[in-house]
Write a structure and sequence with these properties.
The protein has three helices and two strands. With 115 residues, it is mainly alpha-helical. The chain has a domain at 8-85. α2 crosses α3.
């Protein structure tokens, strides 16, 4: 994974105020993804609008949407990696079981024909 923190410094909604963007990011992290998602669902304003979230009274909706999208992409990447590992180990187990079964069959046949 590239980064473990949202790159708020490069957000197009940070409006050239890195301290403000950091405060917004910290507040969103404290509130959590599900609560931010619920708060955004309560408004129909555009991305340039602002909403109160937590202790921030004027947080740009676009910043919150961008933050939420970053978290969603990160979660998808983690889930994809988990899925790939699961598929790899499932295939490995299937191959190992096939080899074990074939070995048992060969051993059984060997025993029958050499008695």
């Amino acid at each position: 994974m590239k980064s473990d923190k949202f790159p708020y410094e490069t957000s197009r909604w940070a409006t050239g105020q890195p301290n403000q963007a950091k405060r917004w990011n910290d507040e969103l992290e404290a509130i959590g993804v599900q609560n931010v998602r619920a708060r955004l669902a309560q408004t129909n304003a555009g991305s340039a609008g602002s909403i109160p979230i937590g202790t921030e009274t004027h947080l740009t909706i676009g910043f919150a949407q961008e933050w939420l999208a970053w978290h969603d992409r990160r979660k998808e990447a983690v889930e994809e990696a988990r899925h790939r590992r699961t598929v790899f180990w499932t295939r490995w187990a299937a191959i190992a079981a096939t080899i074990a079964g074939a070995s048992a069959a060969i051993g059984w046949a060997w025993t029958i024909f050499h008695k």
